[in-house]
Design brief:
- This protein is an alpha+beta fold.
- The chain has a single domain, classed as Penicillin V Acylase, Chain A.
- The chain is 27% helix and 21% strand.
- It has 11 helices and 18 strands.
- The strands form 4 sheets. The protein has an 8-stranded antiparallel β-sheet, covered by helices on one side. It has a 6-stranded antiparallel β-sheet with strand order 14-1-2-16-17-18, with helices on one face. The protein has a two-stranded antiparallel sheet with strand order 4-7.
- A hairpin with a 7-residue loop joins strand 1 and strand 2.
- Helix 3 crosses helix 4 and helix 10 runs antiparallel to helix 11.
- The radius of gyration is 22 Å and the shape is globular.
């Protein structure tokens, strides 16, 4: 599957302030991002087809693979964040911190009690909100969320967004299981609610989560204040905008079954199937469409069972035929993430982010938690303070330009590459080679034979290095 070049200055990406910094230096003079094989004719045909196809609904897909489904003794996590096509997603780092007792933290809409200590996190998030669509922490915990609609009504009252819960789980959980406990405790105390889009018309949903660490994974699914969790010990699992936990429930809300009985959804006899009991009888279009993606994702995982690698998950996230990689008029994949979590604690967890829309036209760039990570402001959206439309009530009555420098360069590159197929092919090949270098370095760092020398290789790559331009054309 083609991988399009996508950025000129990768030093605008905060993750590269860690030991993988030099990898991006090799790419800094490459301008960026359109799948080179997309000729003008092909784009015209696609645009005409789109006129006769309804816009794809909002959607996300999360994946996890554990041994023996993986090719190595590692857990691999991945997510596509599918959001409104005009929404900017940024990748940001927050260091570990300590807070006095009684401190509050302002989330997207409400305040909650702050923890005494928070872990360092790397987040991929819509630029207008506090939480995150996906991310990882310094202890090798990864979390992604999905929107769902259930028999429990969604409320317009502002509470915690599912994306707030992703960040809170990462900041407070040292393991996937602990993050499940963090999220469910906060959910029961503060509830979930509020608009999930930067628009005046409310768009509200409940949430499912996929959580992973070096040893296990969890699926956590919610319906209002109620929830159920499934523990994944081996193999592969995916979630796609629908309830998927059946009878294999490892933990649940203490009143989950009583509530189901009181609503007449369950008789109290026989097995308790969470998805069957709490799913809507008549699903919204967006959830019906999610069934096909869920099945396609599961099939792709099964095809590679026993041999799943980071590249496998990247390929799945780039798959447009299945609908997993979304590229429609209203919604698109605005950010993607893949992480490799070695079961050997002596080996580093490595996290890859696109930081730009559409993984089929972007390059996954690596990040490792190290001491003294320095965020780079060029990838952060501008701050609007008290004048931000999300902070004014009523909210979202106006729009602001949240594009950061990297996002702007990505947009300019797409336009440029549409007019230069030959140049695009050269850049595409160069970027593919550089991505492979990063992946090869990952394999060396996760080798049980020489993990320390592999990390030293990353450090050596920090030396300034320039990659020659594929041609003499000016860069963006």
């Amino acid at each position: 599957m083609g991988v399009g070049p996508n950025i000129r200055h990768l030093d605008t990406f905060p993750c590269f302030s860690g030991p993988l910094q030099g990898w991006h230096e090799r790419m800094r003079f490459l301008s960026s991002s359109l799948e080179a094989k997309s000729t003008g004719l092909r784009m015209t045909v696609l645009h005409r087809m789109a006129e006769h196809i309804p816009p794809a609904p909002s959607s996300c897909d999360c994946f996890v693979a554990l041994p023996p489904a993986t090719a190595s003794q590692a857990v691999i996590f991945g997510k596509n964040s599918d959001r409104p096509s005009n929404e900017v997603q940024e990748v940001v780092y927050f260091p570990a911190a300590a807070y006095p007792n009684g401190t509050k933290v302002q989330c997207t809409y409400i305040e909650v009690d702050q923890a005494e200590k928070t872990h360092a996190v790397i987040l991929s998030r819509p630029a207008w909100l506090w939480g995150a669509e996906m991310g990882a922490n310094e202890h090798g915990v990864c979390i992604g969320n999905e929107g769902v609609w259930t028999k429990e009504p969604v409320g317009e009252e502002e509470a915690l967004l599912g994306m707030d819960l992703v960040r809170l789980g990462l900041e407070r959980g040292r393991s996937a299981h602990e993050a499940v406990q963090v999220i469910t405790t906060l959910l029961e105390r503060y509830g979930q609610g509020g608009s999930c889009k930067e628009e005046p018309t409310p768009f509200i949903y409940h949430n499912t989560f996929l959580l992973a660490d070096r040893t296990e994974a969890w699926v956590l699914e919610t319906a209002g204040l109620y929830w159920a969790a499934e523990k994944i010990r081996e193999g592969a699992r995916n979630i796609s905008n629908q309830l998927s936990i059946g009878t294999d429930i490892a933990a649940e809300h203490m009143k989950l079954r009583h509530h189901a009985q009181s609503q007449g959804w369950w008789s109290g006899d026989g097995e308790f199937n969470f998805a069957e009991i709490f799913s809507l009888s008549h699903q919204p279009v967006r959830m019906e469409a999610a069934k096909a993606r869920y099945c396609a994702g599961r099939e792709l995982l099964q095809q590679h069972a026993g041999h799943i690698t980071v590249e496998t998950i990247m390929g799945i996230l780039r798959d447009k035929a299945s609908g997993i990689c979304v590229d429609s008029e209203g919604f698109c994949t605005t950010g993607s993430m893949v992480s490799i979590l070695p079961q050997d604690p002596a080996l580093p967890c490595i996290h890859f982010f696109t930081a730009t829309p559409d993984p089929s036209r972007s390059v996954f760039k690596p990040f490792v938690f190290v001491a003294n990570v320095t965020p780079v402001p060029q990838v952060r959206s501008p701050s609007f303070g008290a004048e931000d439309p999300v902070k004014k009530v009523p909210r979202f009555q106006s729009r602001v330009d949240r594009r950061h420098e990297l996002y702007r360069e990505h947009q300019a590159a797409v336009k440029l590459m549409q007019t230069g197929q030959e140049r695009g092919q050269k850049l595409q090949q160069t970027m593919q080679d550089l991505e492979m270098q990063g992946l090869e370095a990952t394999r060396r760092s996760n080798s049980t034979n020489k993990p320390h020398s592999s990390l030293e290789y990353f450090r050596q790559m920090q030396a300034p290095c320039r990659c020659p331009s594929p041609d003499s054309s000016p860069h963006i």
